[in-house]
Design brief:
The chain has 275 residues and is of the alpha+beta class. It has a domain at 123-275. The chain is 32% helix and 23% strand. The chain contains nine helices and ten strands. Strands 3-2-4-5-6-1-7-8-10-9 form a ten-stranded antiparallel beta sheet, with helices on both faces. A hairpin with a 5-residue loop joins strand 9 and strand 10. Helix 1 (18-33) runs antiparallel to helix 4 (129-143). The termini are far apart. The relative contact order is 0.15.
Length: 275
């Protein structure tokens, strides 16, 4: 997979409707991100096969839903009940099996207080503006009714740790708990929660700053920030502009490269020194 898409939710943003965040995420993935794969499986030629799973608890056997296009109603009903984990995987059904696309969710802190949804997709042309825009539009649609704690789209980092968590040596649990106090990272596309958006002066001020190609407010709170038109145009210079624009809400500390995560991209400056 070439692109990693992630969103983090918590009880502060969805205290009464956590199941709806999952339904919205997976439904949007099915209708937008993986529409061609769903349609490909529906032809019945066996070139694409899918399976969805719901996991009630880490020790429970997963409930399986083959051919997601046919079993979607039952799968979505399970999502609404806010399971511990869920996923949909699309595989090449002929010859050697390989993954064509995947989306999943899981509780990442105890009691379901924080949960993460993610997707991995292939982007055949990182310099193709319509293809890149489709990824951003997917994330915006998937998050618009929610008030996420964080989100990102990256082309190199497929780890649960964000680029910034890695180089600041921040513990994942600390980063998740403090996601409405400090922005957990920055990327080609970054989702900033409502509390931090307010500290930055709001969506209109961020747009006027000129550091972002697109600034997309979320209906329920927060903002989606697209750094450049295409993923290939997310250069170090563009990343520097993003870093400086978001520095007031980034965690302080001197970043240090982590040999365990050599592909992490970051600006080698302490955000607290930016004025």
């Amino acid at each position: 997979m070439d692109v990693y898409i992630e969103a983090v939710f918590d009880n502060a943003g969805a205290p009464d409707t956590p199941g709806r965040t999952l339904v919205q995420w997976f439904r949007t993935a099915r209708l937008e991100l993986f529409r061609d794969l769903v349609d490909g499986e529906a032809t019945g030629d066996g070139k694409v096969v899918s399976e969805a799973q719901l996991i009630g608890h880490v020790d429970d056997a997963p409930r399986r839903f083959p051919q997601v296009g046919r079993t979607w109603k039952q799968f979505e009903e399970g999502l609404a009940a806010f399971p511990w984990g869920a996923n949909i995987t699309f595989l090449s059904g002929q010859g050697e099996l390989f993954t064509l696309g995947r989306t999943s969710s899981v509780h990442v802190l105890g009691g379901g207080s924080v949960w993460r949804a993610s997707a991995a997709v292939t982007l055949n042309a990182p310099d193709d503006a319509p293809s890149c825009r489709a990824l951003v539009d997917f994330l915006h649609t998937a998050l618009d009714p929610s008030a996420p704690a964080f989100g990102r789209i990256e082309g190199t980092n497929f780890h649960e740790l964000t680029n910034l968590d890695s180089v600041l040596r921040r513990r994942k649990r600390t980063s998740l708990r403090e996601s409405r106090q400090f922005l957990r990272g920055y990327a080609w596309v970054t989702v900033c929660p409502a509390e931090l958006t307010a500290r930055l002066g709001g969506a209109a001020k961020l747009e006027r700053r000129g550091a972002f190609h697109r600034v997309l407010p979320l209906q329920a709170g927060g903002v989606l920030l697209q750094a450049s038109d295409t993923l290939s145009e997310y250069t170090d210079e563009v990343m520097q502009q993003v870093f400086e624009a978001l520095a007031p809400v980034l965690p302080p500390g001197e970043p240090r490269p982590d040999p365990a995560y050599p592909a992490m991209r970051f600006v080698p400056r302490d955000a607290s020194t930016i004025r």
